[in-house]
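Task: sequence design from structure.
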């Protein structure tokens, strides 16, 4: 069966996605916002399958931001319920597919039931290595930098690290994304053109791809389009493009 992949050529090693537009998707159908969040789970399913099939090694999904607590209580609680529902339903298949589940952000501050589910999913999939899916939960890029800075300061205070040894690599090792390469490609559907406190440190040289499609309508075809676009870009990381001839 043709899988509508991006065709021969390199794929990004790490794709990050801001899963946005669920509310608008629901509103357009006259449905409650929670219905949009629920529908978004199907997009996650398809994108994970595609990443796995196409050889993408890391996928980071912005699932709940530190700012999303400002939403009405019933929407927050619907999102929390959906997180548990999603993990209960999808874990067996993620397991079969060799997906390692990770969590980034202050996910340990989630309510006890959510925290326990996330912890269990991370633990159960620890040795899987086909694809790592990092769920950004109670995640904020500024908070992540604050937390890493605090961890560095504690090491200095304990005499294990000298201030002059704090460099980019030390910072990187203390971020919750440690062990993952920086994202090559960041995708934001829904038409918004901003970063909304996602992966601030990590996206320094990430390629951005925006589209109007709403997250619940996002499928592997959209991911393929993003990858094809990504392949046309020239990444020089501040250097000059390679001279030819
Ligand atoms: C993204 O969809 C999901 C979360 C932020 C949890 P939204 O709920 O932000 O959808 P829009 O942006 O209102 O359409
Ligand atoms: C970003 O979307 C957070 C997630 C997708 C989890 P938001 O909808 O919360 O971002 P803003 O408010 O449009 O910047
Ligand atoms: Mg939004």
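Answer:
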């Amino acid at each position: 069966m043709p899988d509508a992949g991006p065709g021969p050529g390199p794929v990004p090693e790490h794709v990050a996605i801001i899963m946005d537009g669920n509310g608008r998707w629901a509103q357009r159908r006259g449905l409650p916002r929670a219905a949009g969040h629920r529908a978004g789970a199907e997009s996650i399913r398809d994108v994970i399958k595609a990443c796995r099939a196409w050889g993408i090694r890391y996928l980071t999904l912005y699932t709940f931001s530190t700012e999303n607590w400002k939403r009405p209580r019933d929407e927050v609680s619907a999102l929390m319920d959906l997180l548990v529902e999603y993990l209960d339903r999808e874990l067996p298949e993620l397991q079969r597919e060799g997906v390692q589940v990770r969590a980034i952000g202050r996910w340990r501050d989630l309510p006890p039931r959510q925290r326990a589910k996330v912890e269990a999913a991370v633990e159960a999939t620890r040795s899987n290595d086909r694809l790592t899916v990092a769920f950004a939960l109670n995640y904020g890029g500024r908070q992540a930098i604050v937390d890493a800075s605090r961890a560095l300061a504690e090491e200095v205070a304990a005499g294990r690290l000298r201030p002059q040894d704090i460099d980019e690599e030390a910072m990187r090792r203390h971020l919750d994304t440690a062990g993952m390469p920086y994202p090559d490609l960041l995708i934001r559907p829904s038409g918004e053109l901003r970063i909304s406190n996602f992966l601030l440190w990590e996206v320094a040289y990430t390629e951005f791809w925006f589209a109007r499609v709403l997250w619940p309508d996002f499928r592997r075809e959209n991911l393929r389009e993003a990858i094809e676009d990504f392949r046309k870009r020239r990444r020089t990381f501040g250097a000059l493009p390679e001279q030819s001839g």
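The longest strand covers residues 131-139.
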